[in-house]
Design brief:
Length: 149
């Protein structure tokens, strides 16, 4: 079986929306508003400065993806690349899709001289944490706070 990574296109929007909805339900028990979600996904394609999506395909079938967004750091004079909206369909998990997606993000980030790669992970999601650590990531010393508006 051949695994490949490619930039997402507008034709991937339905899959990206479905994966985001599935991930939110699976990891946080949240049901996302489909219309808001679709506008959010489209917003990345409409304003590429926000970020980009990558899609993993196995034998030409999309099996997962992720989004990268950017945060400027004046301390580092560079962008933090935030990996978000990571999802791999259940039947393709533990088969290298995330590893390949991550490798492509890392390759692109190094080429762009990004300051670092970052991501959020649910505090109870030990399996995901172990996956990220195997890619060379480590827990940082920041706690996250939020005010939903």
């Amino acid at each position: 079986m051949t695994l490949s990574i490619r930039p997402a296109t507008a034709a991937d929007i339905p899959a990206l929306c479905a994966w985001n909805a599935a991930m939110a339900l699976e990891t946080e028990g949240l049901e996302l508003d489909p219309k808001v979600l679709e506008c959010g996904v489209r917003g990345v394609f409409e304003q590429p400065q926000r970020g980009f999506y990558l899609v993993a395909e196995r034998d030409g079938v999309a099996v997962g993806g992720l989004m990268v967004t950017f945060e400027w750091s004046d301390w580092r004079n560079g962008d933090y690349w935030w990996i978000q909206s990571v999802y791999v369909v259940p039947e393709a998990r533990r088969d290298g899709a995330f590893r390949a997606l991550y490798a492509e993000v890392e390759r692109r980030a190094r080429a762009a001289r990004a300051a670092s790669l970052r991501l959020y992970v649910e505090t109870e999601n030990g399996r995901a944490q172990a996956t990220y650590e195997r890619q060379g990531m480590h827990r940082c010393h920041y706690e996250m706070y939020e005010q939903v508006l």
